[in-house]
Task: inverse folding
């Protein structure tokens, strides 16, 4: 099988950051994240917009939204992005989570709700992908060091 001659389209290339004026009443990811940048690939642009609108969902749920079989959907995503649909979703949400933790005063429960996580799973997700707790990340970005709350 020949190598893919296309450049992979990563979430970093599409993610456009937070909106300028955040409301404390924001409850959806699309309320706090700007429209995505265009990638030049309509399929990826549609997928990124679906992730921006729906937040954390199973990759198979996104395949259903596109009316595609999950295996074909995941294969297309791997071909165009160099990563599985599940990995792409998680990377996009990691970027959004880091922005929300660093640039807002929302509590972590609210951030998790905005991203589509259950109450306890946001901290687990953040720790798994950032290798630190959300409060440690916020402290590091705001004060240049991790605060020690328990020492």
Result:
């Amino acid at each position: 099988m020949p190598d893919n001659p296309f450049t992979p389209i990563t979430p970093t290339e599409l993610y456009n950051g937070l909106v300028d004026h955040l409301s404390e009443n924001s409850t959806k990811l699309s309320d706090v994240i700007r429209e995505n940048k265009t990638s030049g690939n309509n399929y990826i642009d549609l997928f990124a917009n679906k992730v921006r609108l729906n937040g954390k969902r199973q990759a198979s749920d996104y395949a259903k939204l596109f009316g595609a079989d999950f295996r074909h959907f995941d294969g297309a995503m791997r071909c165009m992005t160099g990563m599985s649909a599940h990995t792409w979703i998680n990377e996009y949400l990691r970027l959004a989570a880091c922005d929300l933790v660093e640039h807002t005063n929302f509590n972590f429960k609210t951030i998790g709700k905005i991203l589509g996580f259950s109450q306890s799973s946001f901290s687990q997700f953040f720790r798994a992908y950032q290798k630190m707790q959300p409060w440690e990340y916020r402290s590091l970005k705001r004060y240049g060091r991790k605060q020690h709350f328990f020492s």
Q: What stands out?
A: The chain has a mean pLDDT of 90. The chain has nine helices and no strands. Residues 9 and 81 are 5 Å apart (CA to CA).
